[in-house]
Design brief:
Helix 2 runs antiparallel to helix 3 and helix 4 packs antiparallel against helix 5. About 2% of the residues have low confidence. This protein has a two-stranded antiparallel sheet. It is an all-alpha fold and 318 residues long. The chain is built from 15 helices and two strands.
Length: 318
């Protein structure tokens, strides 16, 4: 009843933040800690993709370049410098943002399928470089044994590392939340809805799109860095285009333009994949694809998008 009243008044944002933090803290107590870490990382990745897709109107199939590129950069910093893993994660996120600058500069002038295909082409180029530059990336073997160094603390146990890496995920999600609720975020929505009118009002549309692209890449890179440190490796799978596709699928499942929906979509997909893998079912893509089709057909706004619509007749963002 309290949630319903808050939803109708459009003030669910702070409440959702509190609930989200509580769930994140309790997650490794309820499920296997490595799976909990996967959900947290993919939730941030999905939120980063939704920042670009749901609030800027740009569908990117190239965000695997930032997730995977950051994973490699984070791993290399951790392996070769001996710096604490938080420094490596921040370095990976910075690398992703720098990588996004030229890619975004050449891409944001396009929209629709053209933007999606150009970002996909750049991501595949990064995949090719990672595969061929074996002396740096390890090629098909990837980077193995990435340390979790933090001033001598033993974080080898996944349960303990989850809480060490969680602040990065929460900080990234909070940053995304603040971005979409800021005047900058409102300009992005206006550009998404009517770029011609935004230009007429004097907003440099391409610059706003580029900044949104870089911010989205930085958040994706932070998620990829935490994932690489948590699992102790960085591989070619991280920079392959299917990684981008999976993040987009999570956003669609949860609800485009909801931000929180990406976390729900991540939880559904990761939990389902873990359940099927544990059961010995190899063709997980068939089941996840069928569920994706069913949800898209029955819940056109996604899981959280539909729930928010039912709670709030005005459909105001939370």
């Amino acid at each position: 009843m309290i949630l319903l009243r808050l939803a109708r008044s459009g003030r669910t944002g702070p409440l959702l933040l509190v609930i989200g933090v509580f769930v994140a803290l309790a997650l490794p107590w309820m499920i296997y800690p490595p799976v909990a870490l996967d959900i947290a990382c993919w939730a941030l990745f999905a939120a980063a993709v939704d920042l670009l897709l749901g609030f800027t109107g740009l569908l990117s199939f190239g965000h695997a370049a930032f997730w995977g590129g950051s994973a490699y950069c984070t791993g290399l910093i951790a392996l070769h410098t001996g710096l604490p893993f938080p420094v490596a994660i921040v370095g990976g996120a910075a690398f992703a943002a720098l990588l996004a600058l030229p890619i975004g500069y050449l891409s944001v002038r396009l929209t629709g399928i053209y933007f999606a295909m150009v970002t996909l082409a750049f991501a595949q180029m990064i995949y090719f470089i990672a595969n061929q530059w074996r002396g740096l990336t390890g090629g098909e073997n990837g980077l193995q044994g990435i340390p979790r160094e933090l001033f001598g603390l033993d974080l080898s146990e996944p349960f303990f590392f989850y809480y060490a890496g969680l602040p990065f995920v929460l900080a990234g999600l909070f940053a995304a939340w603040r971005i979409v609720r800021s005047p900058f975020g409102r300009v992005l929505v206006s550009i998404r809805d009517n770029p011609a009118r935004a230009r007429a009002l004097g907003y440099p549309v391409d610059r706003y799109r580029l900044l949104a692209f870089v911010l989205s890449a930085a958040l994706s890179g932070m998620a990829g860095g935490v994932f690489a440190i948590g699992h102790g490796f960085a591989s070619l799978d991280g920079v392959y285009w299917t990684t981008s596709g999976q993040a987009v699928m999570m956003v669609v499942l949860g609800g485009i333009g909801t931000l929180w929906g990406g976390a729900i979509g991540a939880a559904v997909v990761v939990q389902l994949q873990d359940f099927l893998a544990t059961a010995g079912f190899e063709e997980t893509g068939i089941v996840t694809g069928l569920i994706f089709i069913v949800i898209v057909l029955l819940f056109r706004r996604g899981i959280w998008g539909t729930a928010r619509r039912l709670l709030s007749p005005t459909g105001r963002p939370s």
